[in-house]
Amino acid sequence: MNTGSDEPGEVAVASDGAGGETPDETRADGARDGQGLGSKAPEFIKARRALHVSWQVGVFVIGLAVVAAGIVMLPLPGPGWVVIFGGMAIWATEFVWAQLVLRWTKRKVTEAAQRALDPEVRRRNIILTSIGLVIVIALVAVYLWKFGVVMPWKIKDQ
To answer: What angle (nearest 5°) sits at the alpha carbon of residue 146, between those of residues 145 and 152?
Structure first.
């Protein structure tokens, strides 16, 4: 459970090596230089090592419970991925690794959304979906023509 620093109250700052940016300039991933990575715990908690470790354990356990609930929701009805990313956001309030994973995920989702809005990609997706739909309709029509609609039970016998 690393907060990115050995000193209480100190946070690690991610550096992408680009340089030349002022703290007010926003990078492509939505993060700002100077926006620290690490613990977002209140200062009085970070000032006491035992209290800070307890705080991290609590955040980890709560985040783990939320992520586990999201994993359970993947095959069951429910917003599984949303809950998993919610658990990651809880972890990101305390752990640098979760903050970096969340930034990477946000960047990839933004890139995918931009690609999906590209007219050529949209046209290709519409064409492929239409072809798939025509194939499925044709297969269902052939099945119904060959076998008809047969109920798995016999209503006449009852």
So the answer is: 100
- pLDDT 10s digits, 73-104: 999 888 888 999 899 889 988 888 888 988 99
How many whole angstroms separate alpha carbon 149 and alpha carbon 17? 66
**pLDDT at residue 66 greater than cutoff 90:** yes
**Tens-place pLDDT, residues 99-124:** 898 899 889 989 988 888 888 888 99
What residue spans of 12-155 are helical by DSSP H? 43-46, 49-73, 80-92, 96-116, 119-147
Instruction: Identify which of 68, 107, 113 has the alpha carbon closest to the alpha carbon of residue 88.
Output: 68
Rounded distance, CA 115 to CA 73, Å?
Answer: 28
Burial 34-65 (b: 16+ CB within 10 A, else e): eebbbbebeeebbeeeeebeebbeebbeebee
* Nearest-angstrom CA–CA distance, 41 and 5: 13
Distances (CA, A) of 96 to 1, 4, 79: 9, 6, 25
Q: How far are the Cα atoms of 13, 17, 47, 63, 83 from residue 66, in angstroms, in the given order?
A: 27, 34, 28, 5, 7
